[in-house]
Amino acid sequence: MRARKREKYLRTRAILTPWQFEGCQRSDFSAAIVIPALAEFENLPRTLESLIQNSVKLLARTLVVVVVNQRVSSSAAEKADNAKTLDWLRNRSGSYLNVVWVDACRSERELNDNEGVGLARKIGFDLALTRLDWDCDPLLISLDA
Fold first, then answer.
1. Each residue's pLDDT expressed in tens, for the chain with a length of 145 residues
2. How far apart are CA 87 and CA 133, in angstroms?
3. Could you please report the per-residue DSSP string of 72-121?
4. Model's pTM, two decimal places?
5. Which residues does residue 21 pair with via DSSP β-bridges, in sequence order?
6. Quick check: helix, strand or coil at residue 60?
7. DSSP 8-state secondary structure symbol assigned to residue 14
8. Could you count the other beta carbons within 10 Å of the beta carbon of residue 128?
């Protein structure tokens, strides 16, 4: 029954395009942590570092989703900060974290001006649903960068 409800949700209510994950390719996680990030270049590394303090066993089963997002009307400073964040995510190396990120910054992927962190979270959660192991009862967790 749960599988049918999940599939129906993904088919009828989920937002799966045009956004996609970059990073880790696994699809067997028992938890997902979604972190929307708008101009968080200074804070995001510290947030991820704090997650590393958790049990290696738990981290191995947890997907960390960073949704780097901005509105069409975001300031030049916010857009530059997001570009630095994406570059950092693409070039970071080594940790126990299974990190994926969503580029919701490029002009064709920016959020409309009437949308914001709520849509960024939804994008992260909807995409995460496709990477969870549904044979267990997966956890969905939301943080701020």
1. 477 888 899 999 998 899 999 999 999 999 999 999 999 999 999 999 999 999 999 999 999 999 999 999 999 999 999 999 999 999 987 778 999 999 999 888 999 899 989 999 999 999 999 999 988 889 999 998 7
2. 29
3. TT--HHHHHHHHHHHHHHHH----S-EEEEEEE-STTTPBPTT--HHHHH
4. 0.94
5. 102
6. helix
7. -
8. 23
In the block, residue with structure tokens 């409309």: 112
Specify the pairing of strand 62-69 against strand 31-37. parallel
Alpha-carbon span 36 to 122, nearest angstrom: 10
Q: Minimal CA–CA distance to 32: which of 3, 2, 52, 61?
A: 61
Contact (CB, 8 A) for 81 and 39 = yes
From first CA to last CA, the distance across the chain in angstroms is 35
